[in-house]
Amino acid sequence: xxxxxxxxDYFRLVPDQKAALKRLGxxxxxxxxxxxxxxxxxxxxxxxxxxxxxxxxxxxxxTFHGLKAKKLWKSRRNATEGWFEDxxxxxxxxxxxxxxxxxxxxxxxxxxxxxxxxxxxxxxxxTNPEVEIIPPDMVGAAISSSKGLFANGETSDTVEVDxxxxxxxxxxxRGITSRWFYHALERVFAQHVHEALVDPIPPxxxxxxxxxxxxxxLIYIHxxxxxxxxxxxRKRFAFEEILTIQITRAMERAENDSFKTFPISDAHxxxxxxxDSIAFPPTKAQIRAIDDILKDFGKPHPMARLLEGDVGSxxxxxxxxxxxxxxxxxxxxxxxxxxxxxxxAPTEILATQHFQSFIEYFSHLPIxxxxxxxxxxxxxxxxxxxxxxxxxxxxxxxxxxxxxxIAMLIGTHALIQKSVEFQHLAYTIIDEQHRFxxxxxxxxxxxxxxxxxxxxxxxxxxxxxxxSSAGRNVGMSRAPSPHFLSMTATPIPRTLALTIYGDLxxxxxxxLPPGRAKIATRIVKKDQRDExxxxxxxxxxxxRQAYVICPRIEEPDPAKIGALQARSAxxxxxxxxxxxxxxxxxxxxxxxxxxKEKDEVMKRFxxxxxxxxxxxxxxxxxxxxxxxxxxxxxGAERFGLAxxxxxxxxxxxxxxxxxxxxxxxxxxxxxxxxxxTLEKSDDGFVLAEADLATRGxxxxxxxxxxxxxxxxxxxxxxVKLIQAxxxxxxxxxxxxxxxAQHEELRMRTETSHTELHSE
Length: 759
Ligand code: ADP
Ligand code: MG
Description:
Strand content: 15-25%
CATH topology of the domain at 264-509: Rossmann fold
Bound molecules: adenosine-5'-diphosphate, magnesium ion
Radius of gyration: 31 Å
Distance between the termini: 38 Å
């Protein structure tokens, strides 16, 4: 058995198990070793059955015996009695009024029980203890010898519960049990396969941060003897993951910095010209961000920058001022024409809105602006109606883009289709980048026609430094790459930004333009719901609009009675239309609708044909209806703080004072306290940090959308770890740019690197 061999070569599997492994993406023994338990059932026995002290609350691990239901003759109450044993002795257990309990705990079942010790010394018992049955497939782990699981390659077969064991629980997948993983890994460890793996983390780094080496960490993470071992192993694998991501980012950055771009002179003077032409002064934060970008324009390599700014902080102005400096610049060696800008928005509606804004900003300039979306193309100005845009054919628009006549092209992802080519694309701007993959981002970065205009040699000679990118593109005169600006309003914690955007420089808009009406956020208790509806109605009476956000699409699942059920968008839309707001039009928008239907509903909401939009969190990004001033969020405690902040950002688009109602389903202390943070703070970044600090690691599942695993997300709580990984990554890539001396790390980063060159 070796790490790269297939699991199926060594384990006999039934079809369900095969399917489950495939679903989990586990193919090789190496994959298996890197499939970590999600948690350890903390054995957490706090006492032994022998020597229980009356009046104390205890947790025991052991087995049930002789449970019997009976009727107490005096009170006529139902009762169940029996014994609970661990290795040290036994204690009497009893339940009142739970006649069926005996029927669902089988004789000899292994369980964890928690309760308060009753009786007196020598004659103690547990009444109505809580029971957690340990599933049979986990018992193997629970009852292994106290020397540590797999310590000697075999498990003890005496049925004695070791209360100090930690049982690994693997991510759930239909068809395969934690027990299967337990036994499979037992065999893998027994054959020392884990010792054959090359540790991707260089030994000096392991030493510097006191991290266990790979072989040791694998044992620790699957079969810890103590929770400090489990913690050390998790830290190590988190570091490994973050280091790999950071190295990929550092290499991407190095590659970016090896590309040539268009040099832009006098950018500052021209941007100032633009800023003088607008009605309001830019905020200090906007001035800083614009300055960061203009400075980058002066460098020989393309800018790669992220602009993070809360909803309404004025990112468009930063984009416009810097785009202005580009569309007023001549291509090198030319006496006519301009450099070009591409601006990509996440939705058709937003693209169209930005098209309008840029027409207003740039209408005095002798340039053409284009719009390209799935449903058509436009050009400004029109030949006939001065000051107006006109519809044009896609083919015509693309021709003008390619020959340089369109200075600025705005669009949805239709912008990155292969057929779209530019002549002198010098600047690409992406709004809400997290909606686009890295791959698409790169597609956009390489849109200049390579041949054609016949002036590429001028570029190379006059003004472009030759790329040093390790022999790539040798013999090919590569078209210059545009400067790249990504804009996002998604507040993410600093550690996460440093990790997933590690290849980008960062500018932050941490200030809102003055005169913004402050949002009032209120937590609505159960008995205040009607009051909240009346406050929303008062907005509607004034001609405004409202959102109602629900955590789920479908109606409650009748199979899950008893479980807490969140309100569904579909049911709420019906109810509100019929019972609460019959005099208004109540619309519905959710993620399972077709794009066309979604667009249609959003357009009707924009035109105020719909006054109340009941939606799932799909409205989080992209919907911009300044007339909407109220938002109600059902099941608010189900969302993260940053996400709630994003949602309420939908009504912070106008000068009317907006209101946000949070309607939690539960009244738990902790969730109320968390929601109160929103009443107090309206800084998205503060809230994102609060999210990271207050939600348990297990809640941070959202990481997958950024390609960060759960274990990696846990590490994001640890600023020092993230910084250390980043510094080490930059050091490694600087010293060994092709990772020739870091074979294992090179292989880890390969996937994303292949993607880099496939465009
Ligand atoms: P976002 O960062 O969410 O994209 P926008 O760029 O849409 O924000 O700006 C929100 C609103 O604020 C727009 O109506 C814009 O005209 C206005 N705005 C931007 N900058 C300023 C400023 N410095 N002073 C006043 N209003 C501004
Ligand atoms: Mg915006």
